[in-house]
Amino acid sequence: MSKLLKSLAFLFGIALLIAGLYHIWTYQGHFVDTVTQTPITMDHNQYKITPLKADESKRIPPPSLPDISAFTIENMKAELPEVAPLKAGTMVLNKGFVFVRAELDQFGQMQNIIDPLSIVIEEGVYNLSSLTNAINDPRLLKQIDEKTYVLHVPLSVNKGSSLIISDNQKLFMSVNTGGIISNFGNIYVIESSILGWNTETDQPALYEAEDKFRPYMVSWCGSNLNIAGSKIAHMGYNSSKAYGLTYTSCTDTLYREELPDVTGGTGTIIDNHFSDMYFAFYSYEANDIAIIRNIYEDNIVYGIDPHDRSENLIIAYNETRRTKEKHGIIISREVNNSYIFNNLSEDNNGSGIMIDRSSRNNIIAYNTAQNNKGDGLTFYESPDNLSYQNTLVNNENSGLRIRNSWNIISYRDILNYNDKAGVRLYTADLMENEGTKHRDPEYDPFTENAELKLYYPEMVGNINAHFKMTDVDHVELISPTFYKSPSQMFLGDFRDMNGKYIDLLAIPDQGIDIKKQKKEGL
Questions:
Q1: Phi/psi of residue 108, each to 5°?
Q2: Where are the alpha helices (DSSP H) in 51-123?
Q3: Cβ(510)–Cβ(62) under 8 Å?
Q4: Which of 114, 205, 334, 484 has the greatest count of CB atoms below 10 A from its CB?
Q5: Considering only CA atoms, which of 287, 290, 322, 289 is closest in space to residue 303?
Q6: Cα separation of 138 and 212, whole Å?
Q7: Which residue(s) pair with 231 in the sheet?
Q8: How high does pLDDT run on average in the chain?
Q9: Using an 8 Å Cβ cutoff, are 288 and 314 in contact?
Q10: What are the pLDDT digits (tens) for 195-212?
Q11: Which residues are marked as active site?
Q12: Dihedral, CA of residue 384, residue 389, residue 394 and residue 396, to nearest 10
């Protein structure tokens, strides 16, 4: 009896195999000319659709990523200069702080004097102990105990000088009297804490409103700011260069005449914890910054936000979660030639990762973006980027969203269980759409062109559709993996294509090429 059952099972399996092969052969026949054996191009609305077979060009090798093994706390400690105090003192802000001239009244009110004071490290290498001794005024910088200090006024580290905060020290920056740090030299923060603090209530300077002053750190052109193994919290508000932690050039400031050729601030940020920051990281024309193995939790607007022509960045192995207003990680406005890999971005109010405003030649690989209220990974007006083996799942909008961008390659991305679509691809006129009415086309240009090479994606359980494509120009879709599919695989311009191409897409290394037909006379 068992032999009979085994024989029947074997014959049933053979029958299924033959039926499957016959089904594939007959279905392929719909797309191949039986005489010439060449693919048949079919019309679909304003598009031409052609069968596409994968070749070696569709099998993309793993991208070359930078070696990050040297970015360790121990290596940063080894780079620390010896403490050598030379010259530090006080200075009235209107002589020493060009960048806060617009805020002099505010600092004056906080210090309750007409000419507010600042601390300036002019020369040498200081730690908090030697700086406190040099200033010798607890109204400006006060030592509470062996490890704890309070900065009551702005502190400037001048070009060529250094400040070291290390060995589990804690620096409170007063929100009441204007504690901020402005760096033109070198700052090292290692295994310590810098916290915005309400010195009147002895409580953290928690975020209350975007226009309410909070302490901040800004690292200017030619400077180096390194932070490792530390806690940074309760800083930043909505004022230029005062977002929380900022690296910047001097091109848009009064410093540009004095320092016209100096590059933006740079540095290394590794193994830290950031929370309750207005922006936990912001950069403007700052290059060669490594942001590695940090945790960003419960920040206000953005977790990580390199901006405006910042280049050659490494953003790797970070965790960004519960950003309250917008995205976990965003690069925006010509942030090029950078690497975003092995990050986890989850539970953010916007997208997990966004590539925005003409940011090109970036590699986004091996990241997980999940449970975000926006998309998993978003490309807005940013051509020439690679998305490689990212996991984009359980997001309230789309797994992968692409607008007005081309030469976008998605290779073996996992696009599962997203509410709106696995992939959303479309063009938009940003001058007409609500929500973008303030877009300056000269400052932030865009082209209504949407193209995607989507190779070997996994698409499981997306709620509304696996694909939603509207007014697209060119799509190559190769061998997606489908199961737990929605009732409609396609939405947008291809809503009525459901059923026509599903079997073809299920054939290994087979796909479709979709091209918009040119209008007559063009």
A1: -60, -40
A2: 73-78, 93-96, 104-111
A3: no
A4: 205
A5: 322
A6: 25
A7: 193, 273
A8: 88
A9: no
A10: 999 999 999 999 999 999
A11: 307
A12: 0
